[in-house]
Amino acid sequence: MLLIAERINGMFIDVKQAIADKNKKVIQDLAKRQTDAGATYLDVNVGTAAADQQAAMQWLVETIQETCSTPLCLDSQKIDVIAAGLKVANTEPGILLNSSPLNKKNDEEILDKYIELAKNAGPKSAIIALTMDKNGVPQDIDTRVAIAAEIISKAVELGFDTQRLFIDPIILPVKVPNAQIQPTNILAAMDQITILAEPAPHITIGLSNVSQGTTQRSLINSTFLAMAVSHGLDSAIADVFDERLMNILATAEMLMNKQIYSDSFLKVYSSINK
Ligand code: THG
Questions:
Q1: C-alpha distances in angstroms, 206 versus 12, 22, 63?
Q2: The pLDDT value given to residue 273
Q3: Atom 28 of ligand 1 has which residue's CA nearest to it?
Q4: 3-class DSSP state of 236
Q5: Helix (H), strand (E) at residue 42
Q6: Which of 181, 222, 271, 272 has the highest CB neighbour number within 10 Å of its CB?
């Protein structure tokens, strides 16, 4: 499992404040602690409060890189913010561009632009593409799969290896009225997305979305993670500080025969993910 640690996000009050105060310690501390906890990538999202999002993204990237060489996942809905981050990012260990829809009303070519950015960022760079298009986020299984198929064919057309593509079927909070069917729709979409290409594209989700506003965040996140792992999920943007979640992930991967069983499989899993 490729774990993208979610915590450096302006959605969290401490990070938002750190960006406003240019407080490096808060950010560097989170970068190091998430790396120690098993992060393969660090998500970097400036949130919505920063006055100049491009400058804030560059400050976050530079601040993290001063103490930590964990690959970054630049997270913004604005391609200009991603491009600004890329200018100062060390792409040598790899980088993830998070995220592009298939297309947008005011930008039909948005995915092409992300692919171009990734190509210029070197062979270890990859893209997270959302199963979302100019009509927004689909709620049904078939539209998610159809958009994923278009994303894959666009990548093939542009000579971009599908192994550098992470498809995100977009999980929304289970608490939203009428949304309780969504987690099962996501699992069914994953079953089909994994057979769209050979080798299969990677699949990722913003796991913590599913439990937003609920009283049992850790339980809901970790249960859905185990379910999704059994449907081909091989990456997630997640809370790596959640010990229950990390243990359940290790167990799910062992039961899926992705990690060999030994009596100390939990210990082994946490040491190889460092
Ligand atoms: N797909 C992709 N990228 C994403 C998402 C996605 N990036 C952002 C987000 N979704 C994933 N990251 C988070 C980070 C935090 C939370 C949820 C998803 C979260 N935050 C607290 C909350 O809203 O309750 C913040 C409040 C706090 O605790 O201070 O839950 O889906 N590709």
A1: 15, 27, 24
A2: 62
A3: 12
A4: strand
A5: strand 41-44
A6: 222
Quick one: residue 159, left, alpha or beta (phi over 0 = left, psi -120 to 50 = alpha)?
left
Instruction: Give pLDDT, residue 196.
Output: 95
The pLDDT averaged over each successive group of 10 residues in the chain (274 residues) is 98 97 98 97 94 97 98 97 98 98 97 98 97 96 98 97 97 93 97 94 97 98 98 97 97 94 89 66
Length of the chain: 274
* DSSP assignment of 171-232: ---TTSTT-TTHHHHHHHHHHHHTTSSSSPPEE--BGGGGGTT-S-HHHHHHHHHHHHHTTT
Q: Which amino acid appears at position 165 of this protein?
A: L
Q: How many CA atoms does the CB half-sphere of 98 hold within 13 Å?
A: 28
Q: What is the pLDDT of residue 270?
A: 80
The ligand 1 site (C-beta within 6 Å) comprises 6, 9, 11-13, 45, 75, 98-99, 128, 168, 170, 206, 208-209, 212, 237
pTM (predicted TM-score): 0.97
Given CA atoms 12, 14, 19, 21 in this order, what sign does their dihedral have? positive
Residue 205, pLDDT score: 98
List the beta bridge partners of residue 130.
168
Phi, psi (rounded to 5 degrees) for 65? -65, -20
Ligand 1 pocket, mutate which of 237, 241, 245 (most atoms under 8 A from CB): 237
Q: Determine the distance separating the centroid of ligand 1 and the alpha carbon of 66, expressed in angstroms.
A: 25
CATH code matching the domain that covers 2-272, chosen among 3.30.750.24, 3.20.20.20, 3.10.150.10, 3.30.300.10? 3.20.20.20
